[in-house]
TrEMBL record:
InterPro entries in UniProt: Carboh/pur_kinase_PfkB_CS, PfkB_dom, Ribokinase-like
Protein name, UniProt field: Adenosine kinase
CDD domains for this protein: adenosine_kinase (cd01168)
Gene Ontology molecular-function annotations: kinase activity
Record-annotated Carbohydrate kinase PfkB domain positions: 182-286
Source species, domain of life: Bacteria
Length: 303
């Protein structure tokens, strides 16, 4: 990594809180009421999960996002403070982003996002983005509205950029600026009729040379310099309890490999190991695999 960088990965956006509701099954059958286990609210949305995962792998990580002056914001601030992850926050008048996650017995989840907390005018201050990105080796951009205005700023700086498009269907225009402005693109294959076609369109139209489409227990698709390969799944070390944060963990594991000079196939293995581990962490916790455990599991997977 560049010796002049003070930050290995700057994470933009994606801070918030989730309220976890464990339900008997998904889809949840209609009923006037359901009796469920304890309902808990904890800090941790996509940017938080990615920052925690990167930090756990020993990368110097900094998180920049908008936060409200509210209880939810306090939870996010406490998460970063307790983990020792630097957080630069910008006031968000509408309040900290929040969501309700319905989690089934098999670990699948359905997220209900509160769209009232963000407005089209919300953005990260360009000068703050320039200052932090200018001393960062890499920037990972969350798929949230305040980050969209930062994409041209990052392009001007010439810093490498990654993003996660989550369950993009390959058509929704909201996702395209993020996809086309990134050097490395992660996404889920869940909503894609033809993952390879979407992945190749991203490389044809944008600057990315690497695209990774995760596909749950089936592994992932890995497109590097025009060559598509399948990434085999890695068996979770303990039973699967929740898939929340698995994609963020995969991205963090992949970035760890990329920033430490590993070959693409090795980066993908790191991502698969980290993602599998994340599926064993209960939804009410925000824990990630450490560097030692990741390297040991990767070595075991390659035999």
């Amino acid at each position: 990594m560049r010796s002049e960088s003070e930050i290995d990965v700057l994470v933009l956006g994606g801070a918030g809180v989730d309220t976890i509701v464990r339900v008997p099954e998904l889809p949840l059958p209609f009923a006037d009421s359901h009796l469920v286990p304890a309902i808990e609210t904890r800090a941790g949305q996509t940017g938080d999960f990615t920052a925690v995962a990167l930090h756990a792998l020993g990368l110097r990580t900094h998180h920049l996002d908008v936060l409200g002056d509210d209880h939810e914001g306090d939870l996010v601030r406490a998460l970063h403070r307790d983990r020792g992850i630097p957080l630069t926050e910008v006031p968000l008048p509408g309040g900290t982003r929040r969501a309700v996650n319905l989690v089934g017995p098999d670990g699948r989840r359905c997220s209900l996002y509160d769209g009232s907390r963000s407005q089209e005018v919300d953005e990260l201050p360009p000068d703050t983005v320039r200052a932090l990105a200018g001393v960062s080796h890499h920037v990972h951009v969350s798929l949230t509205r305040p980050c969209a205005a930062s994409l041209p700023v990052l392009s001007e700086l010439g810093v490498t950029v990654s993003t996660d498009l989550h369950d993009w269907d390959g058509v929704n225009p909201y996702h395209e600026p993020f996809a086309l402005a990134s050097d490395l693109v992660f996404l889920s294959a869940a909503a894609l009729a033809d993952p390879e076609r979407t992945m190749r369109r991203i490389t044809e139209r944008g600057r990315a040379r690497t695209v990774v489409a995760t596909d749950g227990a089936r592994g992932a698709y890995h497109l590097v310099d025009g060559e598509l390969r399948h990434v085999p799944p890695v068996a979770p070390p303990t039973p699967v309890v929740d898939s929340n944060g698995a994609g963020d963990a995969f991205a963090a594991g992949y970035l760890f490999g990329r920033l430490t000079g590993e070959e693409p196939h090795r980066c993908a293995l790191f991502g698969a190991v980290a993602g599998a581990y994340a599926c064993t962490v209960p939804a009410t916790r925000t824990d990630s695999i450490g560097r030692t455990e990741l390297l040991a599991a990767a070595a075991e997977s390659t035999g």
